[in-house]
Amino acid sequence: MPKPILLLNCGSSSIKYQMIDADTEGVMAVGLVQKVGDPTPGTIDHEVDGEEFHDSTYFPSHTEAIAAVVKMFNTHGPDITEAVAVGHRTVHGGTEFNSTTIIDRAVINKLVELSGLAPLHNPPGIAGIRAAREILPHVPHVAVFDTAFFAELPAAAYTYAIDTELAKKYQIRRYGFHGTSHQYVSGQAAQFLGKDISELKQIVCHLGNGASLSAIDGGHPIETTMGLTPLQGLVMGTRCGDVDPGLHAYLGREMGLDVAEVDTILNKRSGMLGLCGKTDMRDVEAQMLAGDEATQLAAEVYIHRLVGYIGNYIAHLGGIDCITFTAGIGENAAWVRKMVVEKLGYFGAVLDEEVNATRSKQPRRISTPDSQVEVLVIPTNEELAMVRETIRTIGA
């Protein structure tokens, strides 16, 4: 008998979902709901056994969207009533949640209290949790936190140099995000190399539209680029990453904007979009090859920030055994990997350019046999990691 787990990733206007058999770890169904809360009709796409099914209707809220997901399962399969649990991707757990947690009313209330730490991410996640628990009340629901893996960061790494009482009162610290991916990929890298994770000093480069790095020593994270919010760190698709903290006040004064308006600029109109008008690295590469100077500079800024953090983390690790690229850009943008690794020659990293340029969905080594640093590409699978966490938490 299969052991299906339904996974939900609720954004402000979308719901991504999968059903995975926990026993075989095979994907049973995958889907996407778009335009949740939009006044125009949204869409739902549902795929089972290679067959695709589509529908379009209004989704005034997450409740109607989750109901549409259940209807798709009831109409096209697999049988959603066989699900043994529902796992919810939950972005921010604050200091309250350091591991995957079974959801009850008290957990939801605490997530509401924590919404100020992730105002763009936690509220839609909470709406999805409430809707799913209402429609699927007879199975356990668990919250899988993006921040959980980084809960054990050293105090020197997570502490900001601000008034300690203020930091304690408002839970201000570095939390880190993409933790499910960093944990999964670092484990897969060790398995690929045939080594115990406790033996490895690793840097994981999770490069997607949102991007973060982690330094992992013996399986334990000691640093990560994202901070109190997912805005800190690397240059991203629409997010600026590191800037002078005084920029918020400066833009507010000079442009007559409130904090929320400045936050929107830095989160949604900055990064690669702000630098060159593109967020897809395929478009960035094409514009660079066409000689566009703004795009060339944008790419150089992107790589500069990335390499700077890698060097920083090698210093904190006291050496490096393995650097792994993952997520959409990390797995597919060969030119990004090439530009990064070429700048790491000082540490003994040597790129196999032919392997690096070959597209593949498989885990692979892209460094040469004589490279002193293993450079890998490992596809992330946050959904599978969520399934494993869900099963572990419910004890099934």
Textual characterization of the structure:
The protein is α/β, with parallel strands linked by helices. It has two domains: 4-145, Nucleotidyltransferase, domain 5 (2-Layer Sandwich); 195-382, ATPase, nucleotide binding domain (Nucleotidyltransferase, domain 5), CATH 3.30.420. It has 15 helices and 14 strands. It has helices at residues 62-76, 105-113, 122-135, 155-158, 164-169, 179-193, 247-255, 259-268, 271-276, 281-289, 293-317, 327-332, 334-342, 353-357, 382-394, and strands at 4-10, 14-21, 27-34, 42-48, 51-57, 85-90, 101-102, 141-145, 201-207, 211-217, 220-224, 322-326, 364-365, 374-377. The strands form two sheets. Strands 5-4-3-2-1-6-8-7 form an eight-stranded mixed β-sheet, sandwiched between helices. It is globular and about 55 Å long. The protein starts with a strand and ends with a helix.
Task: Outline the fold blueprint.
Layout: E1 4-10, E2 14-21, E3 27-34, E4 42-48, E5 51-57, H1 62-76, E6 85-90, E7 101-102, H2 105-113, H3 122-135, E8 141-145, H4 155-158, H5 164-169, H6 179-193, E9 201-207, E10 211-217, E11 220-224, H7 247-255, H8 259-268, H9 271-276, H10 281-289, H11 293-317, E12 322-326, H12 327-332, H13 334-342, H14 353-357, E13 364-365, E14 374-377, H15 382-394
Parallel strand pairs: 1-6, 6-8, 9-12, 12-14
Antiparallel strand pairs: 1-2, 2-3, 3-4, 4-5, 7-8, 9-10, 10-11, 13-14
Helix pairs in contact: 1-3, 7-8, 10-11
